[in-house]
Amino acid sequence: MGSANMEKKWLFPLVISSVICIFLLATSLNLGLVSSRHAINSIFSFFPSRVLANQSSLAFAENIVSQGPPPPSVPAIPRFAYLISGSKGDLEKLWRTLQALYHPLNQYVLHLDLESPVAERLELASRVDNETMFNTVGNVFVIKKANMVTYRGPTMVANTLHACAILLRRSKDWDWFINLSASDYPLVTQDDLFHTFSPLNRNLNFIEHTSQLGWKEEKRAMPLILDPGLYSSKKQDVFWVTPRRTLPTSFKLFTGSAWMVLSRWFVEYCVWGWDNLPRTLLMYYTNFVSSPEGYFHTVICNEPEFAKTAVNHDLHYISWDIPPKQHPHTLNINDTNKMIASGAAFARKFKRDDPALDKIDKDLLRRRKGSFTPGGWCAGKPKCSRVGNPNKIKPGPGAKRLRRLVGRLTLTAKFGQNQCK
Ligand SMILES: *[C@@H]1O[C@H](CO)[C@@H](O)[C@H](O)[C@H]1NC(C)=O
Ligand SMILES: *[C@@H]1O[C@H](CO)[C@@H](O)[C@H](O)[C@H]1NC(C)=O
Ligand SMILES: *[C@@H]1O[C@H](CO)[C@@H](O)[C@H](O)[C@H]1NC(C)=O
Ligand SMILES: *[C@@H]1O[C@H](CO)[C@@H](O)[C@H](O)[C@H]1NC(C)=O
Q1: Distance from Cα 119 to the centre of ligand 1, integer Å
Q2: Relative to the CA of 151, which ligand 3 atom is closest?
Q3: Nearest CA to ligand 4 atom 5
Q4: Cys bridge to 197: 78, 284, 290, 394, which one at CB 3.0-4.6 A?
């Protein structure tokens, strides 16, 4: 009883002095550091997504995890960070895709893998150096030290994570990461994308996924492979080793499309590694056939925080033969109507300079040969040779279809519940 009294005695002054401290702190904030209510609001709404990007202390990172992701919507133009990658002979395709996707507010990382000849990689670097627009804006980056990438091997995932890390380091101002290959092409302008994505929660991930592995359990999850791309400087296919392994029991496997639109929040989670899951799974996937079709899906779906906002779509139009072969059907002019009607943001795959691409340029992007896709930002018409007002958005004919698709996807998802099945 005596000790309870003692507690009360010192509790009272403590409470009073804390109140005074908080009061002093609040007034000094109000008078000195920030003067208007608007400024205070904007600091708080931008704090998590913009400022956190520049913190490296572990304690702080752990703090973020317990606090959860940045607040849902930031009323600004969303920005995209692209990885466009290619291999031997893909230079011209990659260049055209880059021109069609270019916008001064975005970030671009270009990568031609080690299989492409040195001359081709140098040509890409010198084209980027020589492009006045890229020099002025400074948002196109070429990975000069090319990676060895084995199709369907874990080196593909490593390459994607490498690009993510470069993009995180180069800019704190992007909201979504999009992984494309040189044989992909946009069906909408960047203005259409900005317009569609600006009301969306910045933490949504568009990743087509399923836990119904079917034949893949036997053929993908149980075999063990080695990817020579991890240690050899000569390109070779992955090879199989025995014995096989059993299915994992400490996490659930997911698979799906290797094309995705990932939130910055999720990319930071994968690259920074303040939680062990992305790293453990990366090691598990080192021996997995076709790791690009599973790594990100398995990470997202095994972390409840991300599983509850995973949108089950890759925003791509990809057409598979029936029965499906290893590669998707190569799109041509006869596919354009279906492609456009899908409302997707991107399509794949195309042959170099296929007439279908000219039709997309003409009807959907309004892009002239050899110039950038026009938009509200363009000055120096008609070729968009200069940046006018980069924040001006002029959605084109594709915006309505994309909005309808994205609206349908986000409407049917009951966010807050686990989206992974
Ligand atoms: C650099 O650009 C100029 C025009 O902008 C062009 O005439 C020249 O051929 C280009 N050089 C290279 C190496 O691409
Ligand atoms: C972090 O902030 C410092 C100073 O505020 C700046 O110099 C540095 O470039 C920032 N780093 C990144 C990765 O944005
Ligand atoms: C990323 O894009 C490439 C095409 O450039 C694709 O092959 C790959 O599977 C994608 N996904 C991952 C996880 O690397
Ligand atoms: C498109 O369809 C027409 C008529 O069905 C056919 O003759 C043509 O070969 C097709 N084009 C391609 C590129 O497949």
Answers
A1: 16
A2: 7
A3: 334
A4: 78
